[in-house]
Write a structure and sequence with these properties.
This protein is mainly α. It has helices at 2-83, 111-123, 127-140, 147-160, 164-179, 189-202, 206-219, 224-236.
Amino acid sequence: MKKFYLFALSALVLSSCASEDKIVSLQREILSIRQDLNELKDQTRSNTEAITNLTSRVDRLSQTVSQNTTDIEKLKASRTTEEKPQVKQPPPPPQEVKREGKEEVTVPQNDKQLYQYALDLYFKGNIEESRKAFVEFLKKYPDSDLYGNAIFWAGQTFYAEKKYKDAIDIFSLLIQKCDEGKIKRCVKYPDAMLKIGYSYIEMGDVEKGKKYLQDLIQKYPDTEPASLAKKKLEALR
């Protein structure tokens, strides 16, 4: 019986030793596996970083290739433009010059239209054409209410050209016809006196010019020409 117990105890001890050995062996294996796992993780991390680096390099290279391609296309385009023969563009067609005067205006049908036509020419700077139109008016419409005005503006065309002697002759004709009662309306009488005075002054005959201005102020004191005559006389003092 005693031997049996010793055998059982021995078996238990041996079994215990075997279990401890197995546990130790398993622990070692687990430790080895953990080490392998750690190495694998490190390797995986390294591979991930390598993949990331490679991806960045690929992106940079792609951008470089794209830029180079664009530059090459621009260079090709510029060379094509330089090599392409320049085609001389035809000059633009000449613009039609807008003409003034009789070609633009309806032919005057009565005294008012002809008078306005001549006056428009004057204010457009067509002095000579304006004078011709006023002369035509004086020939065609001697009985018009605008006859006196037409004489004044005919004289004004000479005054505008600084032909003061001719201007004086025309303005004096207006005054003479008005004094003789040969003109229906003499609304330009004061203006004619003013311009005669101005003309003599411009010609150097200041005293005679001043006399006309003084007569104007005395005869037509409340008119605009009289006001201008006063200013001129003050300037001559």
